Amino acid sequence: MKALVYHGPGQRSWEDKPEPTVQDPGDAVVRVDAVTICGTDLHILRGDVPAVEPGRILGHEAVGTVQETGPSVTTLRPGDRVLVSCISACGRCRYCREGSYGQCIGGGGWILGHRVDGVQAEYARVPFADTSTYPLPDNVTDEAALMLADILPTSYEVGVLNGRVTPGDTVVVVGAGPIGLAAIMTAKLYSPSRVVAVDLAPARLEAAKRFGADLTLDGRGDVVGAIQDLTEGLGADVAMEAVGVPETFELCTRLVRPGGRVANIGVHGKPAPLHLEDLWIRDVTITTGLVDTYSTPTLLRMLAAGQLDTTRFVTHRFGLGEMQEAYEVFTRSGESGALKVVLFRVL
């Protein structure tokens, strides 16, 4: 089969690899029908995630058809159409029993495209298949479901729920890429008084308006002053960091009001300053997190009921064999206008 293989920082190839097989009784082998590329994959290619070894197949977001299951799998059968979650859950360890699947210590967590081969391939082995996949309703398309593999639950859990967005809040989302846009979309479920998007790219600020932002701000301007003016000098109730660089995290800590919350969603590859000399006296809460995907069933029900429109994230579509071209488009999102790219199996 063909797969996208990481060969060290800055090096990737679309090459032949052996088809996966069931290695553990709880495994399933899934034919990949639709797959996407995540900003985390770009972090890996920049060398920000040293746990990823050369030779690893990348990717952790896919929709596919079950081909084979191990003898311990009880909820899936060959032919079932499933969402493959970015988080694998053993279902037995302390963290899984608490719903903190991202911290699984039984062999799960974020492993696909990280510690085991991922899903940017024609076929993929999915460990803990019973607890790491979600059967898809017939009325949910592959493309729509794919956005629930990572970006929607990540933004919802790590941004909106960790940030405790409540009705009437002023919410500032710094970074209007796919994660930031998903944070805007899901924050609106809680009726904040206003959602403000901050970015450097005009195209992404326009996208933020389409996803529900009430106000957009160019990050090169006086963002802190603008938020102060908007909130009678208080600052934001919730500031979400959705980029993953030190400057945007630091900006969030300056945007938030006393008693407010900073929810860090972005993946950081470098140290970020934490000015406790200013923050300690302001009762600021800072949260971080790897998505647990406990919200995926809820989001999937909302999607099936027509309450979420996830296909508007998709700006570019490719055949699975066009993986390298898709990476180029996604990597150059400032020029291409890419939000999410989706690659489909060509029948």
UniProtKB/TrEMBL annotation:
Its cofactor is Zn(2+). Belongs to the zinc-containing alcohol dehydrogenase family. Coiled coil: none annotated. This is Putative zinc-containing dehydrogenase. Residues 1-24 are annotated as: Disordered. One of its GO terms (molecular function) is oxidoreductase activity. The keyword Metal-binding applies. Residues 8-343 form the Enoyl reductase (ER) domain. Keywords: Metal-binding, Oxidoreductase, Zinc. The keyword Metal-binding applies. InterPro entries: ADH-like_C, ADH-like_N, ADH_Zn_CS, ER, GroES-like_sf, NAD(P)-bd_dom_sf.
